[in-house]
Specification:
- The protein contains five helices and two strands; from the N terminus they run αααββαα.
- The chain is of the alpha+beta class.
- It folds into two domains: about 70 residues, no CATH class; about 50 residues.
- The chain has a two-stranded antiparallel ribbon with strand order 1-2.
- Strand 1 and strand 2 form a beta hairpin.
- The model has no long low-confidence stretch (mean pLDDT about 80).
């Protein structure tokens, strides 16, 4: 379904919402202007998302939660102007989080290898354990 077919369906949907007697009384220019106003208010294309989750709930006041997951079909992009300081902080935070994750993964792998070694009964240092080598 291309955009022209979608636009035609939207026009028919708008026209069906009006009282037919009133809609028929409009001149061509009036109908065209009504369509233009509604087109500006309506989304350009139908939204097809892989996940489209919308929920409203009340927690002392009314809240809503909307989650969309899907391909970004918007034309253009957001123009953001970041200062050098903001860019530096962004890179620094990415490095910090990445380093933390890498160190955590390496530490987890070492613990897992130590547990596997212990369960297999392999003694690298006879008559001593890891806790004996660490002095706290």
């Amino acid at each position: 379904m291309d955009n022209n077919e979608i636009a035609k369906m939207q026009e028919e949907e708008i026209a069906s919402k009006f009282n037919s007697r009133i809609w028929d009384s409009f001149e061509y220019e009036q109908r065209r202007e009504v369509m233009q106003v509604f087109k500006r208010l309506m989304p350009r294309v139908l939204n097809h998302h892989l996940i489209d989750f919308r929920i409203t709930f009340w927690l002392f006041v009314k809240f809503y939660l909307v989650v969309f997951i899907g391909r970004d079909n918007r034309t253009g992009g957001r123009q953001t102007h970041h200062s050098n300081q903001a860019r530096f902080l962004y890179i620094l935070s990415r490095l910090f989080v990445g380093s933390f994750l890498v160190i955590g993964i390496i530490f987890s792998i070492l613990i897992l290898l130590y547990l596997i070694k212990s369960m297999a009964g392999i003694d690298i240092f006879p008559d001593s354990h890891l806790i004996d080598l660490l002095s706290f």
